[in-house]
Amino acid sequence: MAGGEENGRLTSGGRDMNILVLGMDGVGKTALIVRYITKRYIGDYDPYSEAMYTSNSVIDGKPVTLRVIDTVGLEKNSKRSEQITWADGFVLVFSLTCRKSFEAVKRIKEHINELRQDTKIPMILVGNKADLSHARAVNPVETRGLATDLQCPMFETSASDNYGSVVNAFHALYREVRTVLKQREKVKKVMQKPGISKKLQIANALRNLREFRIRTYTV
């Protein structure tokens, strides 16, 4: 991968990003990805096929390579765990016409949290099929409420009718990732300062000593 990568992950100076798209089958995950990459809408896909797509994009005037994995199902398995660990950012997709898919998003986020101990995990929430307003099953107040709970940006998109909404969502995720990585690198530099590092070593030593005493007294 690119020179901006550190330990297999994107750094703030990198130009590559790994994206994992998650959601129930049938919500339009593949349609969103293909629409973003090719600008075309294709409504018929194999619902049981996972694939990785690569897009050479320009975001905020800079060339960026996006690697996007399109997932199938919500099963918790070793493959999905590897994908979640691999990703720099996540797109959580539900259909605005399917309440069950909306309710599944929280379970998806909980699974990500189980595997990632990051303080802030870059992700966006996408309600797809906004063009089917007559069949809408999730109202805007609910979608905004979920985005607040997940602490991430929310986008309503239509892979079939609105290319711009799809582009805005993917580019927003890229910016989320960059922001989080810059914050992490800033904290890392502060923690590496000699004075801070020494204080942390002392604090860790004292904590370990307290834990040892507790274990000793409770045996």
TrEMBL record:
State one Pfam family annotation: Ras
Write down the top EC class of this protein: hydrolase
Superkingdom field:
Eukaryota
Q: Does the keyword Hydrolase apply?
A: yes
List, in alphabetical order, the Gene Ontology terms for molecular function in this entry. Answer: G protein activity; GTP binding
Q: Cite the PROSITE patterns for this sequence.
A: RAB, RAS
Keyword annotations for this protein, in alphabetical order, are: Hydrolase
The record's EC number reads: 3.6.5.2
> What is the name of this protein?
small monomeric GTPase
The organism of origin for this protein: Lingula anatina (Brachiopod)
State the organism's lineage. Eukaryota, Metazoa, Spiralia, Lophotrochozoa, Brachiopoda
